[in-house]
Amino acid sequence: ELANGGHQDLPALLSFKAYNPNATALATWTGPNPCSGTWFGIRCYRGRVVGVFLDGASLAGAVAPLLGLTQIRALAVRNNSLTGVLPALDNATASPWLRHLLVSRNQLTGSLNISLGALLTLRAEHNGFRGGLESLRAPLLRSFNVSGNRLAGEISGDLSRFPTSAFAGNLALCGTPLPRCARGYNALGSDSSSNATTTSIAAQSPSTASANVSGNGGFSKISLTALMATGIGNAVLITVSLAISVVMFIYMRRKLRSAKDASDAALYFEEEEDKRRNGGDEKCQKSGGLVCFEGGEELRLESLLKASAEVLGKGVSGSTYKAVLEDGVVVVVKRLSVLQFPASRSKAFDRHMRLVGRLRHHHVVSLRGYCNSNGERLLVYDFLPNGSLQSFLHANGGGARSLDWSARKSILLGVAQGLNYIHTFPARPGLVHANVKPSNILVDERGGACVSECGVMRYATNIQQAILPTQAAARCPPDLFLGRAAATSSAMPASGGGWHGYAAPELASGGARATQESDVYSFGMVLLEVVTDHKAADGEDGGEGEETMGMVKIGMLCTAEAPEERPTMAQVLAMMSEFM
Ligand SMILES: Nc1ncnc2c1ncn2[C@@H]1O[C@H](COP(=O)(O)OP(=O)(O)OP(=O)(O)O)[C@@H](O)[C@H]1O
């Protein structure tokens, strides 16, 4: 697929990279071939770039170059700082195969001038898009959201089938499913037959009718009139009630259908990606029982089993090895414990892992593949050579590696971004990490944090085993915890150390499953530990005092006893950004 000595998609990708010369996420975008398998976030099919997945990668600049990729089918650049306009997209100017366009939570402006017959997903919420929706034509749209922009004007035609939430928070949008536009409302108000009906009900209501006729004194007439009036009134009332019920029924059905459409479309997007990554990729099918995900296409079960391995540790969920494959690639293989992950929940586990395998974020360790056969469950992750937060905080022999305040802040911010990405990933029900603790927070070569082992413990049979060892620690209120920070640090086991101390109190009573709220609690405990450990180890200078206090406050909120009182990770990020 090389034309004139260069890959056809290279210029577009390099123009995008030019906006972000120092972006960590694009550091792998080097060399002549974007389809070599080493370019982060790039998905190819038959030698051409068909997908770009760069959610939450701290990227700036314009999105236009990526939309110039002539074969692109899916572009996901949510949660970045992209600016400029979205170019006009139609079958002549953009890839006619573009089916999924996800640009939410950037700073894009201009109008939504899109006319694409194949588009199934358009997620453009929380940007600065202006103008109306009249130049948006995508008849096959199944997942759609433009909320939180500066759009105005009437929602019409096909778009009206999407729920209110798809349009909320705009400057001045109106029309179904939002309230009617002013012009339409007035017209209906003046001539409307429903208004006429209302008037006629009032005129013909039994009480009015009977009051009118009672002065005539004729009993039979009164009762006949009253009866007639009652009859007419009832008939009108019944008709109106029926009409209201029908309208309500149609409205509710449409609402439910739109909601279902939207979530189905999100799942469709995921399934399609999955197919492309697994079924669609011939190499992956030859992986010998290993289900592989983006970036793991070259993995083979056979070569994993032959690899030279080194034990990294053994936790409640299983044993972890560093494996060096024949071609020199280093991966981490987690062999799940049979006791914690019995074969009986195999299908649910499969479904879950396929979802987790789609997570691609700068602050989340990528799952490259997994195997689930004959009771053996292996998970293959990227290897991060810089160790875990656990090793920084509680290294063997007490020789904790030093982390200055800015490194600690950056780690906490990274973990918060990673968790927020996991919690907001389009899945039904929402994803939960379920085992947030320092040994599952790895540090990359640039000192950034990467959250590992997302969702694995959600499928463990006995999370109590992970929690119980020092349950008292989990129940410590944050202030007590603060006071004990230094002692706790040295008392913590050097490797792993289970989830005790980080698990939310509601999980201790048994029966409860980890939730996004319990993830927030665990994050809060990690945060308090990182902050107080710094104070205990290095003290602080004046400039840090305010930030430290800000962080401690966030930690307190996250570790609220009642799950419903804890903030969401998005709120945590917003609070952090106030002083960082
Ligand atoms: N992708 C990775 N790259 C580098 N080191 C890793 C990676 N994944 C895990 N580790 C390290 O390997 C060690 C063992 O990990 P493991 O997950 O088995 O232990 P744990 O987190 O204590 O236990 P568990 O998750 O089962 O409760 C930990 O120190 C962890 O930080």
Automatic annotation (TrEMBL):
Stored SUPFAM superfamilies: L domain-like, Protein kinase-like (PK-like)
Keywords noted in UniProt: ATP-binding, Cell membrane, Leucine-rich repeat, Membrane, Nucleotide-binding, Repeat, Signal, Transmembrane, Transmembrane helix
Binding locations of ATP: 334
GO cellular component, one term: plasma membrane
Molecular function via GO: ATP binding
Region annotation (Disordered) ranges: 191-214
One Pfam family hit: LRRNT_2
Domain Protein kinase: 306-580
PANTHER family: LEUCINE-RICH REPEAT RECEPTOR-LIKE PROTEIN KINASE PXC1, PROTEIN KINASE DOMAIN-CONTAINING PROTEIN
Protein's name according to its UniProt entry: Protein kinase domain-containing protein
Lineage: Eukaryota, Viridiplantae, Streptophyta, Embryophyta, Tracheophyta
